[in-house]
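Q: Convert this sequence to C-alpha cells.
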Amino acid sequence: MALSKPELRYQAVLNMKLIFFSIIFFIAGCGWANPFDDQIPYKTRFEDGLVFFEDEKYAKSAQQFNIIVERASHTDLGDDALFFLAESYFLDEEHELALIEYEKLVSRMGFSPYIEKTRWRICETLMALSPNYYHDQESSRKAIVEIQQFLDDYPSSDYSVGADNLIKELRLRLAEKNMETGELYFKLKAYDSAIVAYKIVIKDYYDTTYYKDANLEVMRCLVLLGNNEEAKELLEDLEEANQSLLDDSFMEIASDILNNNS
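A:
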C-alpha cells in the first residue's frame, strides 16, 4: 500500500533521527567526547590540550585551554592553561588574541613561573603586529618601549640577544618612515619640512644605516634653500664629530651637493 505525502515526510524525519542517534552512539563507542562536555575533568582536558599543542594542532589546543581558563581559572591548572592558551594563539599566528591572553597573565599572575617568557612573547607579539614602515608607527614605538622594559627587568635573560635585534629592526623601520616622509616633502619642494624629517633620523636613529643619507639630504635641502654656508658648516661639524662616517663615497656625494652638481 502506497504511503501518503504526510506519511512519507514523517518516515523521512524518523530515518534522519535514527541516523543521527546512530552517529552519536558510534562516537560514544569510539571514545570520542564532546569537547564542551562539563563532565570531562579539567586535568584530562588540560592533558588533551597538551597533546594537541605538541602535535601543533593549535586551534584544538586553544579550545581545550580556553575552557579551563573560562571555567577553572581558580584551580591549580588556571595559570598553566592561560599560558598555553596564549602560546596556542601565538604559534597559530593569532597575534591579537595572543596579546590579550599574555597581558592577562602578566596582570593576574605576576609571580607565575611563565612570567619571563610571557613578557618576551608580548615583545614578539607587538613586533608581529607592528606595521611596515609606510604605515603609522605608533605600535612600533610601543613595542620598543616594551622590549626596553623587558631588557631592564631581565638583563641576563636568554632572550636578551633577540630583544636587542627586535629593537634594531624597529628603529630601522622608524628611521625609514622618517626618510620616506622627508622624500615626500622634498618632491613637493617643501625643503624646510623635509629637513625636519631628516633631522629626526639624525637625532633619534643615528645608529641606523639611514644616518648618512639623512645628513646628505639635509645638505641638499639647505643648498636648494640657498643656505650653502649652513650646509658647509654641517659637513665641517660632521668632520669634527664623526670621522668614521666620512668615507670616500660620502665625501664625493657631499662635494657634489655643495657644488650644486646634484
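The two ends are 100 Å apart (CA to CA).
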